[in-house]
Amino acid sequence: MLIWAVPALWAVPSISSAEPSYARFGRIAVKETIAKYGAEVVDYRYDGRFPLPDDMAEERFRLWLRKENREFGVTVHMTIVPSTNRLVSIRWESGTS
Fold first, then answer.
1. Domain map (residue ranges) of the chain
2. In the chain, which residues have pLDDT < 50?
3. How many degrees, rounded to 5, is the angle at CA 97 between CA 37 and CA 59?
4. Sheet containing 40-52, strands listed edge to edge, beginning at the edge strand earlier in sequence
5. Whole-model pTM above 0.85?
6. Cross-referenced Pfam families, in alphabetical order (predicted)?
């Protein structure tokens, strides 16, 4: 008797290769924060999208930075136009944990 070992392909979870919607703004947040603070990004967290007036939204990220043996948190507030994904402004808030 011959038995074939066939992997159960239907049991393998599918892996989506699509980027999350905030990925583009996350890359910009990291790049601009490094340029502004001259520090290494140690950790990164996406806090979410928050609605603003006039059909705008805020993408919010928390970055943990290291510079000259000192670590500190920075919140990056990015105002965007969701319908076009256009970046309007970036604002940093230091000293956040």
1. 40-97
2. 5-10
3. 70
4. 40-52, 56-67, 70-81, 86-94
5. no
6. DUF3889
